[in-house]
Amino acid sequence: MLGRSKTIITLADTTLSEVPMKFMNRSTVCVVGIFAVSLLATSCSKPPQPPPKAGPPEVGVMTITQGRVALTTELPGRTVPQLIAEVRPQVGGIIKKRLYTEGSDVKAGQLLYQIDPAAYEATYASAQAAQARAEANLFAVRLKAGRYQDLVRIKAVSQQDNDDIQASLKQAEADVAAAKAALESARINLAYTRISAPISGRIGRSTVTDGALVTASQPTALATIQQLNSMYVDVTQSTAELLKLKQNLASGFVKKGDSAKAKVKLLLEDGSAYPTPGIMKFSEATVDQSTGSVTLRALFSNPNQTLLPGMFVRAVVEEGVSESAILVPQRGVTRNPKGDAVVMTVGTEEKVEPRPIKVIRTVGDSWLVSEGLKAGDRVILEGLQKARPGTVVKAVPFGSKPAAPTAGAPQPAAAKK
Fold this sequence. Notes:
Blueprint: E1 8-9, E2 14-15, H1 26-43, E3 58-63, E4 66-87, E5 93-98, E6 105-106, E7 111-115, H2 118-153, H3 159-192, E8 194-196, E9 201-203, E10 213-214, E11 223-238, H4 239-251, E12 263-267, E13 278-283, E14 293-301, E15 312-329, E16 334-335, E17 341-346, E18 352-363, E19 366-371, E20 378-382, E21 394-397
Parallel strand pairs: 3-21
Antiparallel strand pairs: 1-2, 3-20, 4-11, 4-15, 5-7, 5-10, 6-9, 7-8, 9-11, 11-14, 12-13, 12-15, 13-14, 15-19, 16-17, 17-18, 18-19
Helix pairs in contact: 2-3
């Protein structure tokens, strides 16, 4: 401001219309004009900076390698005791006493039930008496037959009488043999009144109580004994999976191991792994027509009795081994409109190339590839949305951190206040 004038001078804009001309001289106008022109020239001296050029998009790749992979399959199944016995009476009678505790472990030969033996003891005694009578009769007939043999030589008795007494001797010997058999049968039936455990194991609940009448041909078992020290696991496999495995074996892509010593791992119903591996025993030769599957049986040791009969489990069975397997993570495999599996690879000129592949099955979180890839190929796993076919990309190992910006690279301009 000069004197009483109302002149307003700013850096961005200079207004002269508001200055009364009578308070300004020519020299003042020249100074103000020169100052405004210098400000305008200064503001226009810096040319605008061009935007930095963007490099090729960065993608995470995995280099394909070949290696030995054991092929396994997870199959559902149930546990079955290796030994199981249903205790049934072999003679009829009244249960006098139950001699075991339900749910306990019993030994083979241990007494479980006692049937009233009175009637069987009487039968046994009668058979003993019949045998004694037959033996006494045999003694008399044997002596008489011996004398007749001496008399027939001197013609004291006829040959017919001698033949008759010799036949009587043989009949008496047969009577003794029959009496011995009857005595043995009576002894066996008497022994059957003592019902013993046929095997060692854990016995379940009793279906009868003291005083109950049982028969030799009854369908209901008195109790069931199961041996829990080792358990069978019966699993089922579909015939489609079995045929596919046979085709891979025939082509040589998969090699079969020793089935007699094949290891089997077990997953319990809660998803936890059973600590002890099992051994594959055999495979059924007949297909179940209702389910279209075959049954495989594996044997597992069960020292802590963790496995109980009838449990639902999943068995991880080793089917074979691929010596030069190629695995690709599932996240890197897509499907084309035809449904074929496709992966994006980085070629020699760092360009994206789609590659159709043939997959057989999953192994964990990866696909097992039989055709379309070889060792050394680079498959894109990260940044697939930027990997258009034919575009140039910057390939970095999958999982690595993004590269830091280099020194001297243009930084984003700060916002003007």
